[in-house]
């Protein structure tokens, strides 16, 4: 009565005196000496006042705590804000605690003086050690059980993941127990009540399987129909291609750079025919238009952003137009007197489109070669006015060569007036230019086929470009002939009666190449090139002026070695005097006129009385 019993279920309050933790620990009751320890007399528990004095030591806990930590701790314990913590509040609380402690002391029965002498500090420490040892035993048991559970889990895990189990299993088990020796199985419980549910599940699974089979059947049927449609479409596509492609066409595989779609390309350029034009590759794409159910031919450009599905692709018309302007005698102006005709090729047939693309790239290369040649003929009246126009100036006329690029031919055809006098001549000039470009192609093929010409060639083919020079040479040579005939008439025919001037036609021998040909194909190339010799060879004209009743005569030869300049050879020999002979060459017509006048006056007219040559009297 009046004694406070210690509650072993609750244990000791954790707010212990730190000095007690340094006491030596007793042996655990589970040790072999536990029985001896239990035989010792158990010290009765101390009173509530003694326990409070033993456990609660606020000074040891809060005495040396800084004020910055102590104040928040007090506020937390009191559950009040800092604004309510005042001196009056602390005094009031302190007085209440003093009153409560006094009341407790009054109510507690007074123990006899001899009872206090039975308790000592050692008894209290022994009681504490007993409680502490029990707590340690409980902790050890819990740790043993957790270790055993961990070992069991590790052994179970070693059957499926051996490396992960080795990291958590104890060294003892690792040495004595093989990995994967412990396993577990799930044992189903046979319950008659679940048979009905199982049958329902089986029926439900049968339904799902039937539904899956139906879905698979529909999917397979859909894919089969799709494959048949693809086969039909591919068959039709290749049939259309076989109808438009011939043996001479070059087809190959392409891929769209933007969409990655596989395409079929057709080569319509003239690279294999001897062309050196690299500004346009001459490649088109055969596109299948599913909406119109037909093939379309689209030019292919080597550009990163090019796609056959681009709606901005325009397939226009490109052609060369020749115009002839004749000078008006009364005025210093020119009038249009001839224009080449335009062929309209607006068919949707693939073969016609291929021919159209070939014409376009042929006209582009023709203009490219014309500009390349015209840059060397500026001194002969050939001017490059812009990128697509060349002007050839002659004494009485101008010839305009222009590359037109239009989307609609009707706009150009409407501009053409009624037929003009030089329309046929303009068409002949255009045809001649195209034929001369074909000759260049054949020469390039021959150059590629013969190794000697390739090794000896310096790499510049500008000298082999003969497009404007043959035509310009013919026109200038014709003008030189007119002037030379006029000089002959004024200086010989008009002075000496019955004198005659006759132009002698000389047939040139074909230029037989003495080099050994490789095969019959090169022989055929040589024959094809030789067929254009009359057009390519430099113009030469022979004139013979015969005097009446005399054996002497004048022989004049007009030739153009570089197609543009003129060289006149004059030969005269006196049959009565072998020492009197002349053979001179001139580059100016004025010099020819002076030379003829000198011979007539100095050698012919002085002998008129001796040889009785009739001389026309000048009026």
UniProtKB/TrEMBL annotation:
Residues 112-123 have a biased composition (Polar residues). It comes from the Eukaryota. GO terms for molecular function: DNA-binding transcription factor binding; RNA polymerase II complex recruiting activity; RNA polymerase II core promoter sequence-specific DNA binding; transcription coregulator activity. GO terms for biological process: cellular response to heat; positive regulation of transcription elongation by RNA polymerase II; positive regulation of transcription initiation by RNA polymerase II. Residues 19-36 have a biased composition (Low complexity). Residues 19-47, 102-123 are annotated as: Disordered. It is found in: Nucleus. The keyword Iron-sulfur does not apply. GO terms for cellular component: core mediator complex; mediator complex. Pfam families: Med17. Keywords: Activator, Nucleus, Transcription, Transcription regulation. Component of the Mediator complex, a coactivator involved in the regulated transcription of nearly all RNA polymerase II-dependent genes. Mediator functions as a bridge to convey information from gene-specific regulatory proteins to the basal RNA polymerase II transcription machinery. Mediator is recruited to promoters by direct interactions with regulatory proteins and serves as a scaffold for the assembly of a functional preinitiation complex with RNA polymerase II and the general transcription factors. Belongs to the Mediator complex subunit 17 family. Component of the Mediator complex. This is Mediator of RNA polymerase II transcription subunit 17. It comes from Kazachstania africana (strain ATCC 22294 / BCRC 22015 / CBS 2517 / CECT 1963 / NBRC 1671 / NRRL Y-8276) (Yeast).
């Amino acid at each position: 009565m009046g004694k406070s019993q210690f509650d072993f279920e609750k244990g000791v309050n954790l707010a212990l005196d730190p000095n007690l933790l340094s006491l030596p620990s007793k042996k655990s009751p589970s040790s072999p000496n536990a029985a001896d320890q239990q035989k010792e007399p158990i010290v009765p528990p101390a009173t509530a006042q003694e326990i409070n004095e033993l456990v609660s030591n606020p000074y040891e806990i809060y005495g040396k705590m800084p004020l910055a930590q102590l104040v928040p701790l007090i506020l937390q314990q009191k559950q009040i804000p800092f604004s309510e913590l005042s001196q009056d509040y602390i005094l009031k609380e302190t007085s209440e605690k003093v009153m409560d402690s006094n009341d407790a002391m009054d109510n507690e029965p007074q123990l006899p003086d001899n009872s206090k002498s039975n308790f000592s500090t050692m008894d209290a420490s022994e009681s504490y050690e007993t409680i502490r040892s029990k707590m340690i035993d409980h902790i050890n048991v819990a740790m043993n059980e957790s270790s055993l559970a961990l070992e069991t889990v590790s052994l179970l895990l070693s059957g499926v993941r051996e490396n992960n189990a080795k990291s958590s299993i104890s060294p003892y088990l690792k040495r004595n127990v093989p990995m994967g020796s412990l396993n577990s199985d799930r044992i189903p419980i046979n319950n008659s009540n679940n048979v009905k549910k199982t049958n329902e599940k089986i029926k439900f699974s049968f339904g799902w399987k039937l539904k899956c089979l139906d879905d698979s059947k529909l999917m397979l049927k859909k894919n089969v129909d799709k494959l048949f449609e693809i086969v039909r479409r591919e068959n039709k596509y290749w049939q259309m291609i076989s109808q438009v492609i011939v043996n001479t066409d070059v087809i190959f595989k392409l891929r769209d750079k933007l969409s990655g779609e596989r395409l079929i390309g057709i080569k319509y350029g003239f690279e294999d025919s001897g062309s050196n034009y690299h500004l346009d590759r001459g490649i088109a794409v055969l596109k299948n238009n599913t909406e119109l159910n037909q093939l379309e031919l689209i030019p292919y450009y080597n550009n990163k952003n090019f796609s056959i599905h681009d709606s901005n692709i325009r397939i226009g018309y490109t052609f060369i137009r020749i115009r002839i302007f004749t000078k008006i005698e009364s005025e210093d102006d020119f009038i249009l007197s001839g224009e080449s005709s335009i062929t309209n090729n607006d068919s949707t047939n693939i073969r016609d489109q291929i021919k159209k693309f070939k014409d376009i790239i042929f006209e582009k290369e023709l203009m490219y070669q014309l500009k390349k040649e015209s840059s060397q003929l500026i001194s002969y009246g050939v001017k490059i006015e812009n990128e697509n126009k060349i002007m050839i100036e002659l004494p009485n006329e101008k010839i305009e060569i222009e590359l037109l690029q239009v989307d609609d031919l009707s706009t150009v055809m409407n501009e053409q007036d009624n037929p003009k006098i030089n329309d046929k001549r303009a068409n002949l000039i255009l045809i001649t230019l195209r034929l001369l470009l074909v000759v260049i192609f054949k020469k390039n093929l021959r150059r590629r086929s013969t190794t000697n010409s390739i090794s000896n060639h310096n790499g510049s083919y500008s000298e082999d470009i003969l497009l404007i020079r043959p035509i310009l040479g013919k026109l200038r040579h014709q003008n030189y002939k007119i002037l030379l005939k006029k000089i002959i008439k004024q200086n010989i025919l008009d002075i000496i009666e019955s004198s005659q001037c006759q132009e002698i036609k000389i047939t040139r021998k074909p230029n037989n190449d003495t080099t050994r040909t490789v095969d019959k194909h090169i022989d055929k190339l040589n024959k094809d090139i030789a067929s254009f010799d009359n057009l390519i060879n430099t113009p030469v004209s022979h004139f013979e002026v015969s005097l009446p009743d005399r054996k002497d005569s004048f022989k004049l030869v007009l030739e153009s070695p570089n197609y543009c300049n003129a060289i006149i050879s004059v030969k005269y020999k006196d049959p009565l005097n072998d020492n009197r002979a002349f053979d001179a060459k001139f580059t100016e017509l004025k010099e020819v006129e002076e030379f003829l006048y000198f011979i007539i006056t100095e050698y012919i007219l002085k002998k008129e009385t001796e040889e009785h040559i009739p001389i026309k009297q000048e009026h």
